[in-house]
Amino acid sequence: MTSYFSWNGNPVAFQPGETIAAALLRAGIIDLGQPLNTPGGRVFCGIGACQGCVVAVADAAPVEACLTPARDGLRLGSLPAVGADHV
Ligand code: FES
Questions:
Q1: Residue nearest atom 3 of ligand 1, based on CA coordinates
Q2: Ligand 1 center–CA 68 separation, angstroms
Q3: Which residues, 6 or more positions from 3, have their beta carbon under 8 angstroms from its beta carbon?
Q4: Residue 81: which pLDDT band, with cuts at 50, 70 and 90?
Q5: Which residue in 5, 17, 53, 54 could disulfide with 65, CB within 3.0 to 4.6 Å?
Q6: Ordered structural domains, the chain, with CATH
Q7: Range 21-48 burial, b when 16+ CB lie within 10 A, else e
Q8: Which atom of ligand 1 is nearest to the CA of 45?
Q9: pTM, to two decimals
Q10: What 3-state DSSP class applies to 24?
Q11: Average of per-residue pLDDT values in the chain
Q12: Where residue 44 falls among pLDDT bands split at 50, 70, 90?
């Protein structure tokens, strides 16, 4: 059974144990939106140091996509979307 989270309102499939960043990259989603410390809002370091991969989570605090395991039903989006309808 395939699991999914949503990214800006669109379903993204992931494998068990995969991080949010890995699933997004595998789906061809490279631009994560508003960057914090890195240009472009992208997965850069992959180890939680650069904050370039921070994404919005509906009804929760933003998370580092490179460190956070994907979970079925998560509603995620780029940071400007915090509180917006499409997360
Ligand atoms: S890619 Fe640098 S913190 Fe996630």
A1: 48
A2: 10
A3: 13, 14, 16, 70, 71, 72
A4: very low
A5: 53
A6: 3-78 (3.10.20.740)
A7: bbbbbeeebeebbebeebeebbbbebee
A8: 2
A9: 0.86
A10: helix
A11: 87
A12: confident
